[in-house]
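Input sequence (174 aa), recorded before submission:
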Amino acid sequence: MAAVIAAATMLGSCTSSSPATGHALRAEGPPAVGLLGLPKARIGETYRFAFPLFVNTSRTTVRITSFHLDNVPAGAQVTGYALYSMKETNGYILESRDSDRDTPGSPNPAKHPDHAGKPIAIKSHGDSGDYYAMVKVKVVGHITKHLSGCRVNYTQGGDQYTQTVQCEYALDMK
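Predicted structure, token format:
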């Protein structure tokens, strides 16, 4: 998902002020078809969740310019987005808890290079390759709803598009 860029910052120059709804991308992987989450979320803790991987189903190259969650409930605060290489993180890290980063065997995406800001294109009928994005969420209060709605903004053929794909993340506070 190398095309996934940090936060909701647009890279690239688009002339349109309001992007059209896009349909060029198909989301794949566990975040696209199920619920990711971590039990016993605690106030003050920071958690990370992977976004879906993407396939460009169109005939032209797509350049993803930003990626963000549409629905962030009260009690959750997005503190950043990162782009990681599966080669550098030894695979696709679906979720992690920052407080576990020093526990042997626990994934720690933060110790790996963040490639956010690197505009990488997805060629026609290609996939996002080695890269995937993660959202970093801090629990700042009681959370009663899931985080959801992975929005991808991209350019294609000089036009700007936005597309929302299925994703859902739970931070259960039981």
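Checked by second reader. The first helix runs from residue 30 to 33.
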